[in-house]
Amino acid sequence: MAKVFVSYSRRDKQWLDRVLVYLKPLDLKGAIDVWADTRIAKGGRWRDEIREAIGSAEVAVLLVSADFLASDFIRNEELPPLLEAAESGSLAILPIIIGPCRYEQTTSLSHLQTVNDTRHPLTKLTYAEQEDVFVRLSDEILSVLERPISDLRRELNREYEAIDNRFDREFDEIIKSATEAGYSQTESDIAYCRVNSQRHAMDEKITLAGC
Question: What is the pTM of this model?
Answer without folding.
Answer: 0.70
